Amino acid sequence: MQRSYSRLLGVIGKPNTGKSTFFGAATLAPVEIANYPFTTIKPNRGIGYVRTPCVHEEFKVNDTPKNSLCLNGVRLIPVELIDVAGLVPGAWEGRGLGNQFLDEIRRADALVHIVDVSGGTDCEGRLCKPGEHDPLEDVQFLEQEITMWMASILKKDWLKLARTAEAESKEIYGMLEERLSGLSIKRSHIFEAIQKAGLNADKPTVWSEDDFLKFVDTLRRISKPMLIVANKMDLPAAEENVKRLQKLDYTVIQCCAEAELALRRAAEKQLIDYKPGDCNFKILQPEKLSQSQIKALEIIREKVLIKNGSTGVQDAINMAYFKLLSMITVYPVEDLEHLSDHNGRVLPDAYLVPYGTTARQFAYLIHSELGESFIYAVDARARKKIGEETVLRDRDVVSIVSAKKRA
Ligand SMILES: Nc1nc2c(ncn2[C@@H]2O[C@H](COP(=O)(O)OP(=O)(O)OP(=O)(O)O)[C@@H](O)[C@H]2O)c(=O)[nH]1
Ligand SMILES: [Mg+2]
User: Fold this and answer.
1) Contacting residues for 7 by C-beta, under 8 A, at least 6 apart
2) Which residue's alpha carbon is at the smallest distance from atom 30 of ligand 1?
3) Can you give the pTM of this predicted structure?
4) Do 321 and 353 contact (CB within 8 A), yes or no?
5) Residue 354: enclosing H or E segment and its boundaries?
6) Residue 18: CB within 6 Å of ligand 1?
7) Distance (Å, rounded) from C-alpha 311 to C-alpha 261?
């Protein structure tokens, strides 16, 4: 299957909160999961999926996907996830697995913060009495760690950079972009952060220590948007804590990663009919399940799916792409009559692109040649020509007409 993802999602948090369980449930990659801190040392990278209703039913065609999957009308588009070692307070200074961890999330475009909402693990991930630890503290500490880590990278030659910018009347945006290029931080992020922090971009040498930290903290929020996964929702004390987390300025997804992992594994063996993100499942082969397995599945149905509407894993991934990263899905086709590519594959690809992408930018994404020789595009739904500046919408099906070929 050809990959179409263009963004990386970082699964982060303190040790023992269920990061690898979440990652394993999303990707079905084999990962080590255990009830003690620092189970994961080396990062796990894998492919999960964004879930969106496929357009093939609306267009009344049978599709033959290539870069994605289509399961009973649900299009699953591959995206890349990284699961890293747990982060402990002071990691930015090298505590625990320290900077190694932080370096691994450099390339992440968005972060999924897995919190043990049951309060059953202390600030370093050691088991404690359920409800004893306050998960709100975890949110604050994680923000602080990432900000301090980013600050430590910038701090090294900040004064030199600020002086050069002023002395040579160079724009600070470009210089910072270059300095932070390995961190998936764009010029637009830097521009927005300086504006939002209310700082003078022409006079960085007069920024105080507090101004500098305010800038970095704002830059973190903008360049590494984060949502909170309130994991271990099945445990006591979780519900109360979720209500408190919801008062923070974050999207909070209630989650039981363990349940999703069990359902995905059972579905993989075709024991049940379940698609990631479904609100229910059907047992297909009861004869192959023991009484205790059936009982465990029924508990998941009742205590997780019926109660919360889903396990939350898929919701978190969708939320990260559609809300935090403002992405939409677009289907390119060559043959408008059959909605196929030149090999006759119907609705072969679904692309995730940022909202605001124009028809011509989309052509460039498919192939630079197609962008260069773009003439116009056709919106398959309206059966109308659209120009290069037209902003695409979610679930658009488009055909690009170029001087060379169609796509
Ligand atoms: N009750 C409950 N337990 C969970 C859930 N998700 C994970 N766990 C358990 O939490 C423990 C830690 O899970 P891991 O996935 O290894 O956690 P981690 O955050 O990757 O841990 P480190 O790699 O050590 O940082 C394991 O015993 C899991 O079975 C959940 O949704 N509910
Ligand atoms: Mg782990």
Assistant:
1) 79, 80, 109, 110, 321, 325, 327, 352
2) 232
3) 0.94
4) no
5) strand 351-354
6) yes
7) 9
Distance 352 CA to ligand 1 centre (A): 30
Ligand 1 site, residue 231, Cβ cutoff 6 A: yes
Q: What type of residue is 363?
A: A
CB atoms within 10 A of CB 3: 12
The residue whose C-alpha atom lies closest to atom 21 belonging to ligand 1 is: 16
136 C-alpha to ligand 2 centroid (Å): 21
Tokens matching residue 226: 């984060």
Cα–Cα distance for residue pair 8/12, rounded to 1 Å: 13
Given a contact cutoff of 8 angstroms between Cβ atoms, the answer to whether 197 and 78 are in contact is: no
Each residue's pLDDT, cut to its tens digit, for the chain (407 residues) gives: 444 446 899 999 999 999 999 999 999 998 999 999 989 889 999 999 999 999 999 999 999 999 999 999 999 999 999 999 999 888 888 777 666 777 788 889 999 999 999 999 999 999 999 999 999 999 999 999 999 999 998 998 899 999 999 998 889 999 999 988 888 899 999 999 999 999 999 999 999 999 999 999 999 999 999 999 999 999 999 999 999 999 999 999 999 999 999 999 999 999 999 999 999 999 999 999 999 999 999 999 999 999 999 999 999 999 999 999 999 999 999 999 999 999 999 999 999 999 999 999 999 999 999 999 999 999 999 999 999 999 999 999 999 999 975 45
Question: Maximum distance among all alpha carbons in the chain?
Answer: 77
Cβ of 299 below 6 Å from ligand 1: no
- Distance (Å, rounded) from C-alpha 185 to C-alpha 220? 9
CA 37 to ligand 2 centroid distance, Å: 8
Whether 120 is in the pocket of ligand 1, judged by its Cβ within 6 Å, is: no
Residue positions counted in the chain? 407
Residue 359 Cα to ligand 1 middle (Å): 43
Query: In terms of Cα–Cα distance, which of 250, 247, 249, 254 is closest to 229?
Result: 254
Burial 353-386 (b: 16+ CB within 10 A, else e): beeebbbbbbbbbbbeebbeebeebbbbeeeeeb
| Closest approach atom of ligand 1 to CA 14 | 25
Question: Which residues are bridge partners to 14 per DSSP?
Answer: none
